[in-house]
Structure to design on (658 residues):
């Protein structure tokens, strides 16, 4: 058993959920499907922890699929950056699944429950695959695995609200355009270099700065992945998809899907294309930087005026993506470290918030804020979770949100950009507005008697409270003790920014041919 | 299509060769052009042609939806399972060399197993898509939206 883990951990992380998906469908029993998915997620999570502990000192692991050595064969390559993202994705999957088991009862027809778990596992496999692979084309394959299953998961919300169908369709069209752009970019760099292995690409691309094919490839890849991660003007699919998807799916996607896309864009910008390229620095300064600032303000302002609480959180996610992009655009190790630590912190915070909001929707059957008035008394634990999650979203000390903003502020000041630090603080103040608006409604407004379910609402069962509170407690724990997260993020940023990913790797499992 | 005698007769003659050709493409994929993906599509086309001419209901009674769904899952399982067998035999994931004492023979068996998995899943997916489109109820009334 230990030998299996030692020799095959990088592939097992993907393989276990990949096996769980078809097995769940073959058994065709929703209870069994749930147990399988949960077991697969927990196993993947433990393996991710194992991998992270191995690479947190800067080691790089390499696994040769099929025994074919890179650059010819496909290689899975783990450094601190992707081990961190693997950990985020698998942890969220393991936490969200028990919640999903209860919440999908009112959202998805019973005959589709098994399919839901199978799709969820495929989406999980895809996200993990994008993260762990060291082969550029493999990124595309796994990106499609996760995207296609995500479209289905979003569309499953149609049982409750038929608008989920058009939201899923929007996402399908824009996601496919994104994937197409990405694969065109890959085609162009393959044309220029004749290789697809990331390390090999990095080596060959390093002398090709003035090559026009390489420049257009960079543009295609950044725009393609930008659509997937909802960079501000390319975010149109996101609010609909998060709003109308089943609650558990919203929580999982909001916490993981965009994070994985951000990781992928980082990997391509920092590791595959050399950071010394002039056109890359211009992209940061003139494109990513201004749009990150716009996202922080515009999306937050839009969030203030939403009446649907899930849509409010979705717009808040776009604003938070702005912070992550700002960290990238600062173009320093500290800035990257801010982005990576925020990946983790935002995943935990948004996951907790979407789960808590999902619990209220589960009880009263409506996602409209007005109908949730007065729930503070009816559902004290869920509402408390929303308060703490909200505080973390704002960035109050003692929560993980504060840690992210602190590192980001440090990075901005390091670069001498004090107006930017002012902008970070100002945009956080807008977050105060939309969080307070909701919290005030929960605690101070009278109960909306026009909704029968709201008048008789009770606290949700433990199966929903426990996942939600695990995330809340994690967000408080790492808010007080940020040493571990910041250390891993620093190591990851170092690996990305200073080329740690490209150095000689320790080969796991059999040596390639 | 009961009154289209020619179509029905021609279809009856065509279905068997199409299926045979599908199998040929499947199992010849390691020597020549072809493989699981193409074979799965061709194999499904035989059944879909039958469904178009003789009616979806007759096809569905022989190949019910749940069987098709199981096939989709089974193919993925064959694929991933091949990799697991390789790992159990001491190789890396999908390292076919360990399947046989002779590495070339091992590669041969491995690719056949993997392509079979691909073929089964593609066949299942094609059939499921056909069922989903052909079996769609008439478009919705306005009030349903």
């Amino acid at each position: 058993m230990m030998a299996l883990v030692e020799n095959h951990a990088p592939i097992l992380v993907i393989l276990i959920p990949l096996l769980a998906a078809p097995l769940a469908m073959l058994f065709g029993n929703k209870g069994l499907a749930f147990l399988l998915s949960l077991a697969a997620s927990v196993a993947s999570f433990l393996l991710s922890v194992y991998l992270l502990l191995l690479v947190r000192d800067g080691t790089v692991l390499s696994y040769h699929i099929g025994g074919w050595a890179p650059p010819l064969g496909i290689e899975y390559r783990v450094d601190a950056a992707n081990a961190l993202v693997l950990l985020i994705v698998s942890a969220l999957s393991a936490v969200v699944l028990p919640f999903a088991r209860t919440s999908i009862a009112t959202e998805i027809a019973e005959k589709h429950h098994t399919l839901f778990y199978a799709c969820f596992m495929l989406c999980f496999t895809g996200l993990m695959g994008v993260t762990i692979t060291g082969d550029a084309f493999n990124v595309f394959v796994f990106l499609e695995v996760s995207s296609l299953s995500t479209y289905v998961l979003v569309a499953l919300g149609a049982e409750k609200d038929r608008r989920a169908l058009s939201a899923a369709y929007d996402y399908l069209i824009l996601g496919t355009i994104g994937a197409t752009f990405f694969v065109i970019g890959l085609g162009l760099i393959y044309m220029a270099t004749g290789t697809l292995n990331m390390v090999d690409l990095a080596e060959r691309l390093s002398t090709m700065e003035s090559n026009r094919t390489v420049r257009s490839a960079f543009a295609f890849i950044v725009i393609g992945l930008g659509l997937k991660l909802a960079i501000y003007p390319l975010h149109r699919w996101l609010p609909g998809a998060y709003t109308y998807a089943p609650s558990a799916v919203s929580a999982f996607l909001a916490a993981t899907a965009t994070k994985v896309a951000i990781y992928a864009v980082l990997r391509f910008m920092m590791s595959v294309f050399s950071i010394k390229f002039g056109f890359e620095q211009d992209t940061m300064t003139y494109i990513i930087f201004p749009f990150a600032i716009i996202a922080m303000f515009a999306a937050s302002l839009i969030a203030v005026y939403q009446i649907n609480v899930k849509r409010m959180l979705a717009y808040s996610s776009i604003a938070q993506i702005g912070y992550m992009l700002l960290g990238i655009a600062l173009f320093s190790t500290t800035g990257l470290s801010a982005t990576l630590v925020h990946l983790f912190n935002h995943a935990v915070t948004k996951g907790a918030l979407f789960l808590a909001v999902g619990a209220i929707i589960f009880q009263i059957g409506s996602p409209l804020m007005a109908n949730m008035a007065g729930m503070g008394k009816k559902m004290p634990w869920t509402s408390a979770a929303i308060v703490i999650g909200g505080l973390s979203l704002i960035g109050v000390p003692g929560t993980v949100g504060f840690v992210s903003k602190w590192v980001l502020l440090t990075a901005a000041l390091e670069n001498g950009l004090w107006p930017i630090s002012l902008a970070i603080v100002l945009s956080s103040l807008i977050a105060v507005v939309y969080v307070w608006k909701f919290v005030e409604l929960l605690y101070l407004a009278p109960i909306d008697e026009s909704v029968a379910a709201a008048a008789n609402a009770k606290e949700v069962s433990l199966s929903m409270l426990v996942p939600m509170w695990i995330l809340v407690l994690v967000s408080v724990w790492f808010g007080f003790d940020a040493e571990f997260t910041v250390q891993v993020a620093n190591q990851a940023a170092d690996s990305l920014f200073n080329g740690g990913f490209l150095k000689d790797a320790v080969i796991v499992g059999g040596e390639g041919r | 299509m009961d009154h289209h005698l020619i179509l029905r007769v021609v279809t009856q003659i065509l279905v068997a060769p199409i299926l045979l050709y599908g199998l040929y493409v499947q199992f010849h994929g390691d020597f020549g052009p072809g493989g699981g993906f193409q074979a799965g599509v061709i194999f499904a086309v035989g059944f879909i042609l039958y469904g178009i001419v003789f009616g979806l209901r007759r096809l569905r009674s022989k190949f019910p939806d749940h069987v098709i769904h199981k096939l989709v899952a089974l193919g993925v399982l064959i694929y991933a399972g091949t990799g697991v067998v390789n790992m159990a035999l001491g190789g890396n994931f999908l390292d076919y060399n360990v399947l046989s004492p002779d590495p070339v023979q091992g590669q041969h068996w491995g690719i056949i197993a993997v392509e079979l998995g691909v073929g089964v899943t593609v066949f299942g997916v094609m059939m499921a898509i056909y069922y989903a489109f052909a079996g769609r109820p008439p478009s919705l009334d306005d009030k349903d939206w």
Summary: The CA atoms of residues 51 and 59 of chain B lie 5 Å apart. Chain B has one domain: 5-136. Chain B has five helices and no strands.
